[in-house]
Amino acid sequence: GLLAVVGKTTRQGNQLAVDHVNAEGGIKSMGGAKLALVPGDHQYKPEVARAETERLMREGCHVLIGAFDSGNINAMIQVIKQSSKPIPFVIDIGSADQLTQQGVKYVFRVFTTNSTMGRRGIEYLMELFKSSGNPCKRAVMFQVSDLFGQVGRERTMEWHKKLNAPFEVAEIITYPAGTQDLSTEVAKAKASKPDLILAITRPNDAILLIQEAYKQRVDVKAIVGPGNPGFYQPTFMRALGKLSEHTMANAPWWNPKSPLGQKVAADYEKRFGDPFTTESAWSYQGVRVIADILERAGTVDPDKFVEAARKTNIKDHVVSGGPIQFDETGDNVGASSSMVQIRDLRPKVIFPRDVAEVQPVYPIPNLWERG
Q1: Percent of all residues in the chain with a pLDDT value above 90, rounded to a whole number
Q2: Does 129 share its domain with 49?
Q3: How far, in Å, CA of 30 to CA of 80, rounded?
Q4: pLDDT at 45
Q5: Does residue 331 belong to any structural domain of this protein?
Q6: Looking at the domain assignment, is residue 145 inside a domain?
Q7: Distance CA 2, CA 262 (A)
Q8: What is the pLDDT of residues 210-257, one digit of tens each?
Q9: Domain contains 168
Q10: Do 155 and 199 fall within a single domain?
């Protein structure tokens, strides 16, 4: 479906973790039981997500993992909620806050929430502006009109207000998921004369946005995804080349200063030939969390899994943030995000400072002067 590229990436991350766990001896408390990854594809359609969840449960899967898109994850949760024989669901990637606020005890989220991403995105922008002494004053926000985009916009604007950010959001421009043309939307944004573009996009529309901004010579100091999977995908850099350079994205990332993260990233890139990014890192970590819980539970019994999950405390992991621990709703209290900037066609961490790989380039060079 619309998210086929990220679906491939997340499956690769899941599979690498499965292979690592099995190579290390499997689940030792269960006699060395091996993990097996059984694929499902929601095709970016909630009705398909429901059917696939029902199929996987019917076929005897013990734990669900996935599924990148919050709307489809919500459809999966409803199946678990209504089942007489529910199984645990570990959300490796999926950010809408309400996913874990439905009272379903079998649902745990490793990933960062939209609320946390909204806060961190505004904080990193404020730090960027303060350190440069050259703040942006007027922003336009682009927002894809699915559940992810809607919640991302709400949380970003909530923290924009709470933190008293030093720039106004003059206009919010929405567009449908799967759009093939953003020329009208970009023209509208240009007419607003912003010096900052904020964008909550999917990968394909992120490419369209930059192409149109280039064609229409939109003059801004920065192009930033405050919580955006579009601006760091390998397809984004491949499609745009130099036009992708210096774009920034706040995202739950991997920790480039972690020895474990460095090792897993190298393994991933050697095996699949793609950069290690949000999708591959958090899908990898999601499987690792499941293995950790199963080791403690010693069984695939769903209620024992839940009991063991409540005791999770993983300090050595590959993703951004602190120790992985679940609160009473099933959210990971240690989950956070990083700000990355495309440099030499690769995403590099610029915030937080303690894990930064490079210093930010800001203001960015004009798109139409990239050569």
Answers
A1: 85
A2: no
A3: 25
A4: 87
A5: no
A6: yes
A7: 30
A8: 999 999 999 999 999 998 878 988 889 999 999 999 999 999 999 999
A9: yes
A10: yes
Residue 90 contacts residue 65 (beta carbons within 8 Å): yes
Q: Cis peptide before 352, with omega less than 30 degrees from 0?
A: yes
Assess whether 101 and 128 both reside in one domain: no
Q: Indicate the average pLDDT of the chain.
A: 94
Separation between Cα atoms, residue 67 and residue 47, nearest integer Å: 14
Residue 2 has pLDDT above 70, yes or no: no
Which pairs with CB-CB distance under 8 Å and at least 24 residues apart come from 178-184? 178/2, 178/204, 179/205, 179/208, 180/208, 181/208, 182/142, 182/208, 182/209, 182/212, 183/212, 183/215, 183/216
321/334 Cα distance (integer angstroms): 5
Task: Looking at the structure, tell me whether residues 13 and 47 fall in a common domain.
Answer: yes
Residues 142 and 124: beta-carbon distance below 8 Å: no
Mean pLDDT confidence for 120-141: 97
Residue 230: give the domain boundaries. 115-251+338-369
CA distance 31 to 10: 28
| Backbone region of residue 325 per phi and psi (left: phi > 0; alpha: psi in -120 to 50; beta: other values) | beta
Contacts 24+ apart (CB under 8 A), 28-31: 28/295, 29/294, 29/295, 29/296, 29/297, 29/298, 30/294, 30/295, 30/298, 30/299, 30/300
Q: Is 34 helix (H, G, I), strand (E, B) or coil?
A: coil
Tokens of 370: 């990239």
